[in-house]
Amino acid sequence: MDRKALELEDIDIAWCPGCGNFSIRNILMTALAELDVSPEKLVIASGIGQAAKLPHYIRTNVFDGLHGRALPPATAIKAVNPELTVIAESGEGDMYGEGGNHFIHAIRRNPDITNIVHDNMVYGLTKGQASPTSRRGFKTPVQVDGTQHDPFNPIAVAISLGASFVARAFAGDVDQTKELLKKAISHRGYALVDIFQPCVTFNRDNTYQWFKENTYYLDDTHDPLDRIAAFQKAIERGKMALGVVYVNRGKKTFEEKTGVYEADARPLFMRIESRTEKLRELIESYRN
Amino acid sequence: MKIACSPGQANVIGSCLHRCGTSRNAETNEGDSGNGQDSMNRAARTIKGEVSIAVCGEAGQGIKIVEHLLTKVLKRAGYNVFATKEYMSRIRGGSNSTEIRVSSNRVAAFVDRIDVLIPINRATIERLRNRITDQTVVLGEKDTYSDVSRVVDIPFGKLAQDVGGEVYANTVAAGVVTALLDVEKGILDSYVRQLFSGKEEDVIKRNLAAAAKGWEIGGHLRTSGELVVEIERSGTPSDELLLNGAEAVSMGAIAGGCNFIFSYPMSPSTGVLTFLAQHHSEFGIIVEQAEDEICAINAGLGAWYAGARGMVTTSGGGFALMTEAVSLAGMTETPIVIHVAQRPGPATGLPTRTAQEDLNHVLYAGHGEFPRIILSPGTLEDGFYLTHKAFNLADEFQIPVFILTDQFYIDSYYNIPAPDLSLLLNNACIVETTEAYRRYEFSEDGISPRGVPGYGKGIVSVDSDEHDEAGHITEDLSLRTRMVNKRLKKLELIKQAVIAPELVGSDRYEILVLAWGSTRNVICEALSDIARKDVSLLHFKQVYPLHGSVAEKLRKASKVVVIENNATGQFANLIKLETGVDVSKKVLKYNGLPFSKEEIVEALLDLR
Predict the structure, then answer these.
(1) Average of pLDDT values for A88-93?
(2) From the CA of B573, how many Å to the nearest CA of chain A?
(3) Pick from A56, A60, A72: which is nearest to B299 by CB?
(4) Residue pair B515/B540 in contact by the 8 Å Cβ criterion
(5) What phi, psi does B375 have (nearest 5°)?
């Protein structure tokens, strides 16, 4: 598909010059075009924050909801119409902080959606406070002595919950990230892609250079089907692994588990038929 | 502006747990019978026209089974039945009771009066102590209840042991009552078999034996004249439905096309989630227990966005967590049906009790300004038809629509004729999109055609930020003003669709009693008992927005009285705010129990 199908005209992008979001938008559009995902069949659900503005800059169906709440509507949208390609996308503060409970339970439900998390280790739109993934000692106007807590580890949490697909990417690496996104979107089941991304305005610690120096790509020796090996990669000290860390094959998707598509594959919006007969039967059973 | 809310002007009812059984119903109940055994047995009594039976015991002692057996069997036998329960927030122990009214007329209200009391254990009657009068007949071991004036000696414990153990005492009791009401034994046996059909054959046999023992005793009481209950059977109830509020609302949801529910269990709202779960496969409903109420409603909005008809069911505390998403529904103009079953607050309050305290909560929930509709069923029929209607109203106006019930409504059973399904049309409001489609296109009435993703060539974009017609984030402030006006413009159409309040009684009233939701039936029964031509009831099934005729109806009355289950008169205050009419008196109750008929009778008789 021509990438132009995903271009929106007359957009006024609200991101800072040099922001990693530009790169993620660009890579995502290329990945979607290469996968032939047409805008009419694509829904991006997002929350609130700079990252969550992304669907407004792509030609796609959009559900831009509340802070931290992209996953519940994304799960519902896919469940109601499995013919759609559904992406839940936002920043790490939104997905892992405000929406942490949904992150856990979306993994358990395993809807066939892709969860893209822009992870820049800082809050941008509220002007530079620590985020759940900020490193210890990260100083901000609120965390005046530096962040006291250990960072949230989304990769380890997702693997511990048996997520069906867990990957980590770096927005600075266009080709690798594009391939990871294509794998995640093609994967059947919940797919997490945590994308490291520098914030050029509020995070002077975790720069492009820092991410280059503190990450490495998993090679063929890593077997993503090996959960223990994957967990070891997720919690190892030092450089952080990029690539597909874990794949849990054979999990049923949430849509399958609902049971409503067993006899009828049509999405729910096509099923506005009368229930009168069945309802009458049900009501009759209350006569006795 | 003067709103009657000083203690002197408000009647507060129920400061003790239950009031004493005053206002006996002379027409339907007699005192001692003329039976010759009177002098021999203080228990002797003939009850005519209607009987109120209370069963009490600990949680886990099978009160539910007695309630289930008696309501089903008695309805099948042609009696009108009503059952309501009050219970503690625990799984075992405590003290719970069920009241079952059996009548020749339709009944659907809680009464203080207890004609026949069946205590499964001694300790639990203490909570009902001030409802036990010298007319109350207690069925139980004479020695255990020596302090009660009328006891019919039935050794439930021993009888139950005889058939296999104490657990069968409740089935013995059900047998006694069905025989007292002269029900064919075959009906009782078939319901015992049905109720225990999932159990081992031995358990079924023992329950049948227990029912037979009770049946024998009840028959003896009736024929000997020791305890006689004479109630005419009309025949129609046997062919009617026996439902509770949760079932009425759930069936209404199915009728309204509900095919998606994410919710988090919370008393007393869970029955709706349970019902839809149990019938999900036959109706193709996606049912999921959410991790919290925030997930529940945000998923519900996602479901409507993608073309489903979703609802959530919750109570006050759970709804508090949903309020941000109510605002999201307002901003994105996404329909949603929200069932709130009220219970007393604040905070955890009384989890298993009843109240009408959350009118303001749902009326003002959500930041910012946007239209909404609040419906509040009074009858079981209302629960069915209004919930059906809620889905169509939500779809048509693209707004949140509330069904506001309460514990009393949700947990009470009675027989009703089957609803007329031929009237229940569902309007599918979804449009196929074209390439030029814009979700928030300006229109004359404020309603933009609603497309869904994947249906047509267009793109459907919804945004919690202020947005342009295409649904994209904007900070254009003149566009902002137009969008606010567009959303609020829908109110004009919504007001044209408001359900008019129901006038019960003469339209030449002096005193007009206002009520909403679950208090309807008790006020209707009380009004019919007192036969005051100058007092009528105006009952609201839709509490917001109010119907255009309300102010005029209020001005016709010399006195306006509001009856509601809360401490501050929330509906009375809304009436003043919306109509400018002063409410002269408020009759309020907020101890966690529903109004009894006796309380309402007394309050109505006091009106001058």
Answers:
(1) 98
(2) 32
(3) A72
(4) yes
(5) -110, 145
Locate the chain A residue with the closest alpha carbon to B243.
A286
Question: CA B277 from chain center: how many Å?
Answer: 20
* Distance in angstroms (rounded) separating the CA atoms of residues B317 and B361: 10
CATH of domain B502-605: 3.40.50.920
Query: CATH 3.40.920.10 region(s) of chain B?
Result: 23-239
The minimum CA-CA distance between A79 and chain B, rounded to whole Å, is 8
Taking residues B221-240, report their average pLDDT. Answer: 92
Two structure tokens written together for B379: 């009858």
A4 shares contact with chain B (CB less than 8 Å): no
Quick one: tokens of A23?
């790169």
CA angle B454, B456, B459 (to 5 degrees): 65
Is A73 close to B302, i.e. CB distance below 8 A? yes
The type of residue at B106 is: R
Of the residues A11, A37, A270, A275, the best mutation for testing chain B's interface (the one with the most B CB atoms within 10 Å of its CB) is: A275
Residue whose structure tokens are 């005192």? B31
Spacing of C-alpha A38 from chain mean position: 19
Task: Please tell me if residue A141 touches chain B, with a CB cutoff of 8 Å.
Answer: no
Q: What are the chain A neighbours of B287 within 8 Å (beta carbons)?
A: 258
Two tokens, residue B372: 């909404």
Distance CA B236, CA B440 (A): 52
Distance CA A277, CA B377 (A): 25
Between A and B, how many residue pairs show a Cβ–Cβ distance under 8 A?
199
**Alpha helix segments (H runs only) across B450-519:** 477-496
Compute the distance between CA of residue A187 and CA of residue B575 in angstroms, rounded to an integer.
56
B329 to chain A, closest Cα gap in Å: 9
* Residue B63, amino acid: I
Cα B289 from Cα B464, distance rounded (Å) = 25
Contact B306, B453 (CB under 8 A): yes
Task: Name chain B contacts of A42, Cβ cutoff 8 Å.
Answer: 453
Q: Which residues of B touch A283 (CB under 8 A)?
A: 241, 251, 418-419, 421
Residues of A in contact with B257 (CB under 8 A): 272, 275
Instruction: Give the model confidence (pLDDT) of A15-43 as tens digits.
Output: 999 999 999 999 999 999 999 999 999 99
Residue of B nearest to A74 (CA): B302
* Contact flag B76-A288 (C-beta cutoff 8 Å): yes
Give DSSP secondary structure letters for B339-398. Answer: EEEE---STT--TTS-----HHHHHH-SSS----EEE--SSHHHHHHHHHHHHHHHHHHT
Is domain B2-13+242-419 in CATH 3.40.50.970, yes or no? yes
ipTM of the complex model? 0.98
A155/A195 Cα distance (integer angstroms): 11
Give ranges for CATH 3.40.50.920 in chain B.
Answer: 502-605
Structure tokens at B332: 């994105």
pLDDT at residue A258, rounded to an integer: 97
Residues of chain B with CATH 3.40.50.970: 2-13+242-419
Note whether B453 contacts A267, CB cutoff 8 Å.
no
Chain A, 224-283: which have a CB under 8 Å from a chain B CB? 254, 258-260, 264, 267-272, 274-276, 278-280, 282-283
CB-based contact B247 A41, cutoff 8 Å: no
In angstroms, the first-to-last Cα distance of chain B is 23
CA distance A143 to chain B (A): 28
Give the distance, in angstroms, between the CA of residue A229 and the centroid of all CA atoms in the same chain.
23
Architecture of domain B23-239: 3-Layer(aba) Sandwich (3.40)
- pLDDT of B16 over the 90 cut: no
Do residues B46 and B228 touch, judged by C-beta distance below 8 A?
yes
Question: Is B325 in Cβ contact with A69 (below 8 Å)?
Answer: yes
Residue A125 pLDDT exceeds 50: yes
- Cβ contacts of A79 within 8 Å, gap of 6 or more: A111, A254, A255, A258, B260, B286, B303
Q: Would you say the pTM of this structure is higher than 0.90?
A: yes
